[in-house]
Structures are given as structure tokens and as C-alpha cells.
């Protein structure tokens, strides 16, 4: 993720504060709260990236436009940082797989079998009355949260709402945010939107990695089963030989 220009730390605190129309002391407070993560120069000077500036503007929008309290903002930014970290993990995994492919080209070996099974936590199993009982809410509250897109239950073939374990986790999180932290509904909507985005990003990462592994496995299997030829033929990659790492990365 360091190669992304938006993550390159370039702005000193005075410039960053001016860009987002805040006092430098406010930026220090947000850092202590873990809302932003500025980099450091060799001399320990805070340096803010374009991504940090985006985060600061988002904090201002949440607090000034939506009236979200600081506890709600902390939840939003924690999830945003998780998304950032997940993107970094994805890029690192792509690099790892490309490195593995290069190694396989010179010394083929079996790759682990992909696992495409559905996460049990996402299996829709609970009707609305059971889901409401599990989270100590009224069924009408669950319908309201669905209209607000805070939760997204599945449907049976007869259009009956069916809630998964992940939906139950989300409902419990909504209750914690509203009852324990006093986050308003606008803040809860932002937090749950990011939670759904994070879940989707994780699923996408796993799917992309799985497809890459399947592609590598298929290429290596075809390569190992090629009939023996001359050394000259083996030295020239054909259409059935493994592709270069760059070709795999194009499918990202």
C-alpha cells in the first residue's frame, strides 16, 4: 500500500490543519484518539498523507453535518482504518502469489486446494421473530433497520426474511452503539455502511485470492503434463506454459 500516492506522508501538521480548516491541536487530539494515523519523518515530525486529509474531512462531516458524537466517530474511523489495512493485505497477498508463481515456474510443486465454501456465519437461518428474540428487540425495529439498510437479511423462496449469524452480530452492534455509546441514527448508518463495505471487501479479497490460486494451479497442472520436448522447445514459453506474474496481476 506504500506505493499508493494517497498514502505517501507529505504534509506537516500546519499544512494539514490548514487544508481541513482545523486547529493543529485538534489534529493531535484526533491522533491520540486513534482517529488518524499520521506518519513520521526521521526526525519524528508528523507527516500527513492525502488519505489522512480525506479522513480528517470525513471526521468534520460526521461531527458538523451529521451531529455524530465522538464515540460514533471513533467507530467509523476504526472501520475505515480496517478497510485501509485490508487493502494493504490484499496487495501484499497479490505480491506473495506472484512470487510463488515465479518460484513455481522454476521449481513446480503442488499448491493448496482452494476452498470456496460459504462462510457459515452468512447462512440465513433465523426468521424475524427468532432474530428479534436473540437480540432483545421488537420485530418492527428489525424492519426499520432493514429499511435504513443497517442490516440486509436474506429471503426464503417464499420471501420470508431470514437472518444469518452475521446479521445477529450486526444487530447487537447497533444496540451497543445506540444504547451504550449514545450514537445517533446518522452515525449508526455510517458505521453499518462501513461494516457492510468491510465484509464485502473481505469477501472480495478472499474470492480474488482464490481465483488467482485456481489459475496458478491450473497453469502449473497443464505445464507439468506437457509432453517432453527438446530443450529449445522447453525454453520457449508456449500458450500452455505458465504466464508471467504480470499477466496474473492484470486480472486484479
From TrEMBL:
- Annotated coiled-coil segments of the chain: 76-107
**The species this protein was found in:** Deinococcus malanensis
PROSITE patterns the record matches: HTH_MERR_2
* Protein name, UniProt field: MerR family transcriptional regulator
Q: Does the keyword Lyase apply?
A: no
Q: State whether keyword Kinase applies.
A: no
- Segments carrying the region annotation (Disordered) are 216-252
Stretches assigned to the HTH merR-type domain: 10-79, 125-194
Q: Which UniProt keywords apply?
A: Coiled coil, DNA-binding
Origin superkingdom? Bacteria
Q: Which Gene3D superfamilies match?
A: 1.10.1660.10
Amino acid at each position: 500500500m506504500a506505493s499508493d500516492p494517497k498514502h505517501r506522508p507529505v504534509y506537516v501538521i500546519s499544512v494539514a490543519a490548514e487544508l481541513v480548516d482545523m486547529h493543529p491541536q485538534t489534529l493531535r487530539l484526533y491522533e491520540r484518539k486513534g482517529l488518524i494515523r499520521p506518519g513520521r519523518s526521521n526526525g519524528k515530525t508528523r507527516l500527513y498523507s492525502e488519505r489522512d486529509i480525506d479522513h480528517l474531512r470525513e471526521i468534520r462531516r460526521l461531527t458538523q453535518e451529521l451531529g455524530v458524537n465522538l464515540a460514533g466517530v471513533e467507530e467509523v474511523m476504526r472501520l475505515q482504518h480496517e478497510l485501509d489495512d485490508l487493502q494493504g493485505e490484499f496487495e501484499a497477498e497479490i505480491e506473495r502469489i506472484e512470487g510463488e508463481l515465479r518460484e513455481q515456474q522454476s521449481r513446480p510443486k503442488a499448491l493448496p486446494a482452494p476452498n470456496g465454501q460459504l462462510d457459515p456465519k452468512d447462512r440465513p437461518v433465523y426468521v424475524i421473530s427468532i432474530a428479534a428474540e436473540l437480540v432483545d428487540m421488537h420485530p418492527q425495529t428489525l424492519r426499520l433497520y432493514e429499511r435504513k439498510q443497517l442490516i440486509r437479511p436474506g429471503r426464503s423462496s417464499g420471501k420470508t426474511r431470514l437472518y444469518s449469524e452475521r446479521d445477529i452480530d450486526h444487530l447487537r452492534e447497533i444496540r451497543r452503539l445506540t444504547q451504550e455509546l449514545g450514537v445517533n441514527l446518522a452515525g449508526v448508518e455510517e458505521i453499518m455502511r462501513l461494516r457492510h463495505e468491510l465484509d464485502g471487501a473481505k469477501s472480495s479479497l478472499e474470492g480474488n485470492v482464490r481465483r488467482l490460486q485456481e489459475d496458478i494451479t491450473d497453469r502449473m497442472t497443464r505445464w507439468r503434463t506437457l509432453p517432453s520436448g527438446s530443450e529449445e522447445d522447453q525454453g520457449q514459453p508456449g500458450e500452455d506454459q505458465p504466464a508471467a506474474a504480470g499477466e496474473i496481476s492484470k486480472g486484479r
